[in-house]
Design brief:
The chain contains twelve helices and twelve strands. The protein has two domains: 197 residues, Jelly Rolls, CATH 2.60.120.10; 108 residues, Homeodomain-like (Arc Repressor Mutant, subunit A), CATH 1.10.10.60. The protein has a seven-stranded antiparallel sheet, sandwiched between helices. Strands 2-5-10-7-8 form a five-stranded antiparallel sheet. The protein is an alpha+beta fold. Helix 7 packs across helix 8.
Length: 321
């Protein structure tokens, strides 16, 4: 992935076109250019024999504007690619022409023409452009983006319409695409700041309350925990890896529901322990066996937490079952 660094950014300006290539060589070259200059990815197309694409990049201080014009294609960034290049870079795409079917963080979303979507290169994703597309995309390092949007995770896999402040941002990206930056009256770093300000304003119009994305992730997190609560090493880090999000965002989605990962995990384990103790089929289980079966590594810790939650010791509950 191209390093995004401070400075004017003009040295990163670049153009590429498949106009001199035909068919499979064009698609192969497109794969190479995108992986070398944007982010490692795999690109395929049902139109291999006639595939065409064009890419224009403009450096804006610490960020890049990458404008793509392509025939029908599917882009995939896999977990293995993320492990090789784990840089946390966010990509905000404006679908100027065409639509996209996106999968990211386990969520599927349709992005219609005239809408924005944000993804994080530090997590796997896929884009399918069924009829080709013109996508105007800002690639932004997380450290820069958080100056404008302190928690960009809340914007992931949500569509934003190009109206109000979104319209201003779309107009800016379209102007850069049409006219370039050679004769711009402001410095490129200043233009990048304008983009960041528009992005913050656009997010502010729609981010009040719980996002649909957060709600879906919370439900998925609870489902995964119900399936894996008996694993002693289940942790926020392990859950984050399963959901393809950051550990910090795991804590955020639980906080958004007035709870914590630890509280939910403990409740799952203790409730299951209670069920075991009241089930005659498990009468042969010692208290330590019940603890281990529910993910506890220390039977005395299990007994203490059980008493705190239910008001009596595990053995007492069994004796009264």
């Amino acid at each position: 992935m191209t390093a995004l660094i401070a400075g004017n950014g003009a040295e990163r300006d670049k153009q590429w076109s498949s106009s001199n290539l035909v068919g499979n060589p064009a698609l192969s070259a497109w794969n190479t250019v995108m992986s070398d200059c944007v982010a490692e990815m795999n690109i395929d197309s049902a139109e291999r024999s006639t595939f065409s694409a064009r890419w224009d990049r403009y450096g804006l201080g610490p960020i890049d504007i990458n404008n793509f014009r392509t025939a029908e294609q599917t882009i995939s960034r896999t977990a293995a690619m993320v492990r090789r290049h784990p840089d946390e870079v966010y990509a905000l795409s404006y679908m100027q022409q065409g639509s996209a079917a996106v999968r990211h963080a386990g969520i599927d979303v349709h992005v219609p023409q005239g809408s924005f979507i944000l993804v994080n290169h530090a997590s796997p994703y896929s884009f399918r452009f069924p009829e080709g597309a013109v996508a105007l995309t800002a690639h932004m390092p997380a450290s820069w983006l958080r100056r404008w949007v302190p928690q960009p995770e809340t914007m992931l896999v949500k569509t934003f319409d190009a109206d109000a402040w979104g319209g201003a941002l779309a107009a800016m990206l379209s102007a850069i695409d049409q006219k370039g930056l050679r004769d711009a009256a402001l410095s490129r770093s200043c233009i990048a700041d304008q983009l960041g300000a528009f992005l913050a304003l656009m997010n502010g119009n729609v981010s009040a309350g719980e996002s649909l994305h957060q709600g879906k992730l919370f439900k998925r997190a609870l489902t995964l925990m119900k399936d894996r609560f008996d694993e002693p090493d289940l942790s926020p880090h392990a859950l984050a890896a399963e959901l393809n999000i950051s550990k910090r965002y795991v804590h955020k989605i639980f906080a958004g529901h007035n709870t914590t990962f630890g509280a939910e995990l403990l409740a799952l384990r203790l409730n299951h322990a209670k069920d075991i103790l009241q089930d005659a089929r498990f009468a042969a289980y010692r208290i330590s066996d019940v603890a281990y079966a529910c993910g506890f590594t220390d039977p005395s810790h299990f007994a203490r937490k059980f008493r705190e939650r239910f008001g009596h010791a595990p053995l007492a509950l069994r004796n009264h079952a």
